[in-house]
Structure formats: C-alpha cells, structure tokens
Amino acid sequence: MTEKDALATTDHLQSQGHNDHPNQDMKVTPWEVEGEIDYDKLIEKFGTSLITPEILEKIKKITGELPHSLKVQYFFSHRDFDWILKKYENGENFYLYTGRGPSGMVHLGHLIPWIFTKYLQEKFGSRLLFQLTDDEKYLYRQHSIRKEIERYTYENILDIIAVGFDKKKTKIIVDSKHIQYLYPIATDIAKRITFSTAKSIFGFSNSTNIGMIGFPSIQAAPCFLPSLIERKPTPVLIPAAIDQDPYWRMTRDVAERLGYYKPAQIHSKFLPGLGMSAKMSSSKPETALFVSDDPETIDRKISSAFTGGQPTVALQRKLGGNAIGCPVFWYLRYFFDTSDESDERYLKCKTGNLLCGECKGDLSNDSQSFIIDFKKRREKAKDVIDEFMYDGEPYDR
Amino acid sequence: MTEKDALATTDHLQSQGHNDHPNQDMKVTPWEVEGEIDYDKLIEKFGTSLITPEILEKIKKITGELPHSLKVQYFFSHRDFDWILKKYENGENFYLYTGRGPSGMVHLGHLIPWIFTKYLQEKFGSRLLFQLTDDEKYLYRQHSIRKEIERYTYENILDIIAVGFDKKKTKIIVDSKHIQYLYPIATDIAKRITFSTAKSIFGFSNSTNIGMIGFPSIQAAPCFLPSLIERKPTPVLIPAAIDQDPYWRMTRDVAERLGYYKPAQIHSKFLPGLGMSAKMSSSKPETALFVSDDPETIDRKISSAFTGGQPTVALQRKLGGNAIGCPVFWYLRYFFDTSDESDERYLKCKTGNLLCGECKGDLSNDSQSFIIDFKKRREKAKDVIDEFMYDGEPYDR
C-alpha cells in the first residue's frame, strides 16, 4: 500500500468517525466528554480549522517526516498552527504549552498528546511549559481531598518527565506551588472576562463556586508567560485534546488587548475507552490502561475489552469485523501500529482475515512492553524533578 | 462634666446620627459608600451587634483605659468581640488583621482604624497581619493602571509603618507579592462559595469580571493564616470600617467547615468628608485631608469646609451652631479632641459660644502638626520596609 493510499484510507476512517449513527448526545467541555464524538461537528461548533494537506506538507518539509499522530489524524484540528509554522520559517521560534489536571494516574490516552508535544519539541527545538492544574482539580469536586491531589501531582510529574522531554527546554508549573508567577497575568486576563462571557464559554451557573469561575484565568496565564520570559511578544502553540479549547478561545479573545499574540492550538481527538465510551476515562478504570497497571491487569482489561468482532469465529471469517467500531483497533492505530500496519489491520479485519484475539494479543503485548519501559523511566524521573520545576527564570540559555 | 455625663452626651449624638432626616439613599458596600449613613440601620441590615457598656467595661478592666475611638463610639459595632475578650482572659491571645486597598494616598479617615489597631496591639500584645489588596484595586476599575497601584502600594506601606505598629509583631501582605501564602487558603474558601452566595453578599452581576468574583476569597484568606502559622485554630479580630463587613460575613460562613474559628470583627464608622458627604473620599480630594497634603493645602481645604454654623456671627451668637451636622466638629471629635474637650465644644457651639472660625482654626492646627509629624515617621519607614514584609515564617518568636 502506498502512503497516498494509506492516507486515503485514513481519510475514509476519519470521515466515518468511530461509529456510523448520527449523534445527539455529544457533550464536550473541559470537565465532561460524553456520548459518541462527531469530530467534524466539534470543529464547526468550536470554530476551529481542520488540519489541511497543505499544513501536513509544510510540517514534512520542515521536519523531514510526518509524526504518527498527524498521519493517523489523531491531531486533526487547529487554530493558527499555519501561522506558527510561518513564524518558524521566518526565524521566530515558539513555546509549547500543555497541561494536566492531576486528578488521578495517567493512562495511555493522556500520553498521546504529550508524546506528540515531545516530537514538536525535538523537531522545532521549542521550549515547553507544562502546567499541572492542581487548584482546578481541588476546586472542581466538592469532596476532593487536597492530600490526594498532591499525591497525583507528584505521580503525574514523574509521568511527564518519563515521556522524555528535554530537561533544558522544559519547565513544569504546579499552580498551587507557582501561583506567584501566574497571578499577575491571571488578573490581567480575569479583569477582561465578565461572568456572562465565562458562563457562555464554560457553562457556569449560579451554583458554580467562585474558585471555578476565576480559574480559567489561571489556565490561560501560561499562554502569556513566554512573552514575559522573553520580554517580547512570543508565539505559543498548545497541543492538547479538543475539550480544552474553550480555555484558548477565551484566552485568544483577550490576547491582543494585552499586547500578546493569540495562542495557537493543535487539537487531538480522545482515545476511546476499552468499553467504547467517548474517551478513555480515569473514572472508569476498567476501560483505561494506566501507566501504573501491572501486566496482569493490562491483560485482564484487554481480554474483557469490547471489540467490533462477530459473535463467533466462523461469522468473523465470513462477514469480517467492524474495525471502525472497535476500541482495540483504535488503540493500536493511535498508539502502537504504524499507519501502514494499521491500514493493513483494517483491511484484514474487514475481510475476515483477522480474529479479535489476535488484535487483543497485539495490544496486550505492545501495552505491556510500553508500560514496563515507561515505569523504568518514571523511576529515573525521581532524581531530576527539581531540574524540571519552573523557578521564574529564563531557561535554556 | 463627669465621664458619665460625657458618655450620655455621646449617646445622644450617636442616636441622632450625623443629621436628622431619615435616609432613603444609604448605600454601603465594600466599593461604594453613598448617602447619609444611619448606623443603627446598618447594624440591623448587616446583622452585627452594638458594642455594649459591658464590653466597654471589660476593655477598661483589661487595658486600664478606654481608647478614644471607643469612648466616642467611632468603633460602634462588632461580631464576637466579647468572645475574643473572653478567650484573652482565658489566656488565649488573638491575631489582629486589617487591610487597605492601595488605590490612592491615605487620608485621616483611613488612619483612625489603624491607630485603634495599634492601640489593640499595644494593650493586648497581639500579632498583626496587614493586607494590601493591590489585586482588587487593579481588578475593580476597568481603566486602572498597574504601575499606579504599585506606586500607591509602596506609599501606603510607608503610611502603615508610620502609624507605629510593633515591628516584631506586624507583617504586611501585598496580595500580588505574597499570593503563594494566600492561594491555598483562598481556594479552600472559594470552593465553598457559590456564585449565588457571592452575588447576594456583594451584589455581583453578569457583567462583573471573573477576577472580582474570585477576589473575596483572597481578602478572606488572612483570617485563617494565623491558624496555619500557629498550627492550631487561632482567634482573629478584624478592626475595620463597617463597609468591609460583607467579606467577614462570607468568611464566617465557611470558617467552621474548614476547622477554623469564625473571625471576630470590630466595626468603625466613616469619617465624614469636609463637604458633608457620607465618608471622607479619595475620589473627592477637596473634602479629605491626605497625609501627603502640605500645610497650605490643609489650611485651604479646612477654610472652605462645610460647617454647621449660622450665616452670620450675630446669628451664631444668638441661635448657636449645629455641631451634629458639622464635619469640622466630627473631625475634631473623632481625631483630635479628647472626648471631654469634644463634649465641651459641642455645648459651646450649641449655645452660641463658639464660632466656626475657631473650630476651623483648631482643626487646621491639629491636622498640620499631626501630618508634619506623620511625614517624618513616613520618611523613617523607608528604612524598615523589608522587616515588615510577610515571608511565610512564624514571627515574634
């Protein structure tokens, strides 16, 4: 299969989404992702742009290769990513900014944007700010416990470092620890956002607590921190799942009034849960593969995963499987298979030449070896935490 | 006149308020004080308690003398002040906490609660936290300029130190500089206050910015900081003008749920403006005596002050003046006269034995010498700013 064919197949998969029936119940906010996701509709609803073949061509030209997440369109949407590339071509580098809400252990779905961010850092030589919104996680749930969030903040810092970001070019910000660097920018932003605006962007109500209402200005603040570090307006690119887009929409609204560039975004999809829910979710632990899971747990979760297979082997051989509706397929496609391997898997499944057990076996093996390796890197991360912590100083000089 | 007589006169003055007509337009919020103030109604509206003769007796017993601000009922209302005194008698000391919004230079009206706070610090040996809400001042006005607020923050720090607080027992917190110490407590509080609640307490609307909506949790935070410093629930007493009471009402609502004591308050009135407006106001500079004014300016402002006098000397001699409606009288009573002197002035004015020029002369002389002296102390304050700044460590050990 040529690369062109592969992309055509990908386009085909893409246009179908993960299932065929139209979706009435899709809900995508920074706090809830529910229902079957129609990504075309999301682009329309959020007012973002599809990543075009021209943009992909340009990235290939600059970096020499297209990253897997773009090949399989896991990152599919953007705002001003073309502008970022133009700036880069004109000799102006950008900062990367992404984040994590430390409400639990990290699963593979969380890692994809981080691995993509690492790719961008390597290829473009960009500095990265990584924010941990421990304050939001505390504010969001009425019964959240600070000690627990502190624990996950620590664990997630290890996860971030284990991804392999460049130590010299990467700084981690923990909101409650580094608030003094964010607060002046946050007040600049908050001053320009009325409750009406926040309500319409985030769906706040009269029963939302005043901490949550103020919080978007804290998540927005790192968008402008690079301009303070560099002492000049500095482009920022945010790779993150599309559910975070409301924050950047708000941030873009105030950026120019404050003398900054609008932050650019590149948006990912969600990794489906093994139970075929909207996205892999920490709140349904049986449907997600956590980096802290042991091999037996991974094997058990994958064994009981939902698939797009037929009820019997005979029917599978005869009718073929429904890869599009199969989380195991998407897992392998987005995380472990190359795009060529994945296209081939799709065809073999569809034509009855592949049984679910084989795919599950592949996913189990791949996940186990990935996680074993990841855990080793997590252990090593413990020794370098301090070097990754933001300290208000310019870095990578 | 015996002291008992004097207090009776004071009660009489008190019950009349500053003028005789009932007031429809009174507005008292942390951001606006408008109309003629009816303090009895405020106590009723805010649900606070009048300072009783029993409380005054107890203070006298503990401290040996009644401070001027209590003698003339400038501090007139409280919440749990009696509880604070009881705790003190049982060997448990309290922290004092008060603050200032650094939106301009300080006038004499601002100083009265600070001087009273200094008295409490001296007599009870209490530690004091003094908060400068530079963030709120920035957030409140759409066109506020950060540089200007930074300048006033510096000037106001000098004012605070010039009052003469005990260097060992006093720490100044500037919100934007010390946010890391306040933020964890502020999120604890904010999490427990819905927009509905904040709306009804502070009058927020859909057009309020999200920074202002979150801000009450920042002003509330120092109420609980002493408990963190002392590592046990620690009583806190807030001496401040009554317009700040909404913050403490909110704070008291969440205190016990967070394992702290409810902060106690002692509330002052407002010093009337020289134009007989509701309170001396920085936004009407001709009606206020600033500590930065030169002697000529003070003299000019007092010369053109509104008084309760008659149109001619002859009428004044014949009919007597209206001290109750005279800002010059109240200025002298609250700030410079002893309570005996003030009662005497009241009687002499009422009986036509005192002309407005004499009162204005007294006020001008007293203000000028106070301000000349205060400016000297402000100069000296420049050398000790660092020693007063909060640094997260226990102090006075």
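Chain A has 20 helices and nine strands.
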